[in-house]
Amino acid sequence: MSSAATTCAADVSVAAKRIQTIHKHASDVTKCCFSKRFHLAIGSSDRTVSVWKWRSGRGFEEKSYSPLTHHKYMVTCVQFNEDATILVTSSLDGSTTLCDVETGKIVHTFVQNSCGGIRSSCFVRNYKYFVSAGDNGTMCVWDMFRRVLVRTVTAHEEAISMVCCSIDSRIMLTGDTTGVAKVWSVSELTDTCGKTTPLNILFDCHDMGVNSADISTVTTITNKGKVYSILTCGNDNLVKIWQLTLWKKNAGSHQCAVIMVQSLKGHSSIVTSVCFCGADATLFASTSMDKTTRIWRMVEKNNAVCLQVLEGHTRYVNTCGFSQDGLLFATGSNDKSVIVWDVKGHFDLNVKLHDSSEDLKSTVNVRRDIQVEVSLREKVMFTNAVNSCDFSNECKYLVAAGSDKTIRVWNFDENGRFEECKDSPLYAHHYSVQHMVISPCSLYMASCSLDGMTVIWDLNTLKQKGSLHTEYGGARSCSFSSNSELIAVACDNEIIFVWKIETLQLVAKLSGNDEDVTCVSFSPDSRYLMSGCVEGHFRIWSVHPKKHIISETSTIVYDKAHEIGITCAHFAFKNPSRKPRSILMLTGGNDAMVKTWKLLDDRIDFKMKFVGHGSDITCVKFPRHITTFLASTSLDKTARIWQTKTGDCLHVIDPKDAILTCCSFSSNNKILATGSLDKAMFLWNLPLDDEGATSIRKSMTTDETWKWHCPNYRRRQTHPTNSSVR
């Protein structure tokens, strides 16, 4: 079909014409978006994102780092932050990735809770927060500065197909594949203790599904409240205009009323997207599976007319977007192309659009020079997933094991270099090795496997001391007592076995868990043994450290410590010089949370939860001999370093597309080892704050870098007022 622009209604200010066609992608174009600095981002079903920049006389030229290939499935959303320094991309692979616009480097990756596919996403509250939503009907609210998950909201019973937010960040609109739309208070969504009920529900927004929505940047204030204009479209071939009135019910609470103003007919098939022109609040556009795009204008309060029908695509038109100044308009299609249109018909291709990104770049680089980050020291490849790793005392040995049934051992020299021992890898198991740990005395190590066997090894000779067999099921986790005299093994059959190391004699067989035991850990004083299970509760047994007598029934039972199951646990001392001594315990769960607990005299109290991961926690660890910070790994493909006292996230470690399974600190706490499902083990150098290795410097990328991406903050720093100078 040849390019054409058919006029539906006379309007001299709109006579859109094609100025450029971009053929880049190998499959459908799903999303396109302009930045305020005249970048153009294009997402596609081919799993890539291409990034373009306007060049005078040439139109849009692709950036040198483009295309971005970090997603594994269809890209469903692309958008820039306010100052065009960060490009955010979302995908059906369940991840949202933040990329530096100038370099193309990945800054961070968020993973949707439960790893569900993301259908739509948007910024809220002056770009401080980000919301992603998708297949499982949930919304994830992320803090962009701290890179943490603020909360997860079950918003719809079916897949969420669209989410958008008003420019004043007061209201958010969501729609699903059944045709239901909901209005939410943004302040409630971003408050961890806020309500999770919508302000209004439109059950019949569009028959057979809501596909897209947009909220006008222009609002009016009336005696009834603040009035918003909203566009929606759906599988019923219609574009609908709504009027939403928002008013304050009481302090911190709002109500709203929504009425439909007009239902626009014109498209002969499903309407795929709608958008307002930010520079002209009366102008908006819609795209359709009828292969056309329509430009509309609101000529009266309750009356919109079609100004033009844009034809040029040979297949369905999926997406559209206006540039912020309203001069340019882009449409993307199943024909794998993007057409850039001149909205008013008199745009000069040779015009030089203003761009101050170089000034911004130099300013940001100054800040980056003083960043203190976790750095990658070494990457070691395996033949299969790495399930567990551990360091010995004095950093002499590092051991790791995984799904390839092998155990590998490395030796560290005086200069910190390490090499694999000549007898490594070790073979003893018939199935995947689930967990391995080195004894506190560094004489032994133990490996447990799904074959139901736990092997005790002499760490110096790398020979087997003996093997321990459970009665039924696989062995999931093992732990040495602090005096290295006992070992406890957690099994699939809801039982914990405890053996004496010297004689390999069975000391205790502990039952009471209703479901499979996932983790087990001795306290550092060997007086307690803890177990966690898939039901989410943990049990603690009393242990006589010298007589090796363990109570037959658990001393402490804590139900629902994690709502959907405990995955890992670890003990550490807190204030060991004080009496009575209290012990800190870490737990991680399938609820994406890390929690700390204080154990004192047969009583345990909850202390704090650490929220930020986007999926199941796979491992939690304290450093050696200190409790000022801790580490966690997650299915969201990141490891995090947390400050124990405040719960602040100090570092986010993102090895890019590696689902992390385990972690361990070296004995001097200068190195963190992480294992992953992608057959790799990573060693990270940690930026410790003092020679005693008791504290760690906070990453600038969790806070400061984001402030420098915020134009208001940067403006205050570059041009301080007199009152800010001391």
Q: What's the structural blueprint in terms of helices and strands?
A:
Blueprint: E1 4-7, E2 17-23, E3 29-34, E4 39-44, E5 49-55, E6 59-62, E7 75-80, E8 86-91, E9 95-100, E10 106-111, E11 118-124, E12 129-134, E13 138-143, E14 148-154, E15 160-165, E16 171-176, E17 181-185, H1 186-189, E18 200-202, E19 210-215, E20 220-222, E21 225-234, E22 239-250, E23 253-264, E24 271-277, E25 280-288, E26 292-300, E27 303-311, E28 317-322, E29 328-333, E30 337-342, H2 357-368, E31 375-381, E32 386-391, E33 397-402, E34 406-412, E35 418-420, E36 426-427, E37 433-438, E38 444-449, E39 453-458, E40 463-469, E41 475-480, E42 486-491, E43 496-500, E44 506-510, E45 517-522, E46 528-533, E47 538-542, E48 556-558, E49 566-574, E50 582-589, E51 593-600, E52 603-611, E53 617-621, E54 629-634, E55 639-643, E56 649-653, E57 660-665, E58 671-676, E59 680-685, H3 704-709, H4 711-718
Antiparallel strand pairs: 1-27, 2-30, 3-4, 4-5, 5-6, 7-8, 8-9, 9-10, 11-12, 12-13, 13-14, 15-16, 16-17, 17-18, 19-21, 20-21, 21-22, 22-23, 24-25, 25-26, 26-27, 28-29, 29-30, 31-59, 32-33, 33-34, 34-35, 34-36, 37-38, 38-39, 39-40, 41-42, 42-43, 43-44, 45-46, 46-47, 47-48, 49-50, 50-51, 51-52, ...
